[in-house]
Amino acid sequence: MAPRLASEKRPVKKAAKSTAPSRHLLTSAELPKVWVEALFDEARRFKTAEKAGHPWSEDLKGQHVGLLFFEPSTRTRASFHIAAKRLGADPVTVEIAFSSVQKGESLEDTVMTMEAMGCHFLIIRHGEALSGQRAARVAKKAHIINAGDGSHEHPTQALLDTFTVLERRGSLAGGTVLFLGDILFSRVARSNIELLKTLGVKNVIVSGPPSLMPSEEELESWGISYVPELNKALAQADVVHVLRVQLERHGQKMPMTPGSYREAWGLTEERLVKFCKKDVLIFHPGPMNVGVEIDREVADGPHSCVLDQVANGVFIRMAILKRLHQAC
Ligand code: CP
């Protein structure tokens, strides 16, 4: 396997899985299957209620939901904001670029400050792996939710992705799920793979440039295999998760130009028609590098679930807030 790109140190330690939900949501790896299934039921109820035009609940009335995004976000931040509002809570956004973080305040002090002001939840996106665990160590009562920590995990994305797959397909028994592209830097792939494992999905494969793959040992520890020929990987897949090329995390220049990446690894309309199954589902967590890892025709085409993912993100995040609130 080709050498890795320079990257941040990523943890290999696994969180222990319990049978009960914790106060926090930090990794997919720690989520019990029964908790995930109940969460999906809750999200389905919220979605049904919305379709029926029912008024939003007041499940989180009087609660304050702090949004601490140290890295950019559109979907995760806005959907948590909407989810909090729909549950009767007050979202509190700290604009990190104009916050005391710019004066050197640490993550821990920021968390303790927000909690002291009355925040019951802190939704944190941060560039460093395990930043959620750091926050959880100093939070006295607040629920910490990991909204993406470096290249480590993005558990709420995995939950909304898998919820959307199951909504479209009913079951993943016997199906093959492909993660395509920049796996090495993808917190989305890591969280999805852990979650699929918990849910008993056996056939998970990855494909993409060898330089953007984790080590063989890491792939082996996840129980998944690398399929180096893109055409063969696409031909097996019932679900394809196309991953964003994480340019901002590459410690050196991407080993190919956007054009050559598309040529070698991009999900083009031509490849979709030629190699994919007729009923394949195409996912992308967004934001997309259109014309690099995915073509516009594919992203907007009939196989695409991209906007379903975004829409379901609100229901999943409502369910997460409600269930963590109920748990403790
Ligand atoms: N998928 C995702 O996390 O998107 P944002 O960066 O826009 O939140």
Q: Can you walk me through this structure?
A:
- It is a single chain.
- The chain is an alpha/beta fold.
- It is 40% helix and 13% strand.
- The protein contains twelve helices and nine strands.
- The protein has helices spanning 33-51, 75-86, 107-116, 131-138, 155-169, 187-198, 216-222, 230-236, 258-265, 269-275, 296-299, 306-327, and strands at residues 64-69, 90-94, 121-126, 143-149, 176-180, 203-207, 225-226, 239-242, 281-283.
- Strands 7-6-5-8-9 form a five-stranded parallel beta sheet, sandwiched between helices. A four-stranded parallel beta sheet has the order 2-1-3-4, sandwiched between helices.
- The longest helix has 22 residues, at 306-327.
- The radius of gyration is 19 Å and the shape is globular.
- The model is unreliable at 1-16 (pLDDT under 50).
- It binds phosphoric acid mono(formamide)ester (CP).
- Phosphoric acid mono(formamide)ester binds next to helix 2.
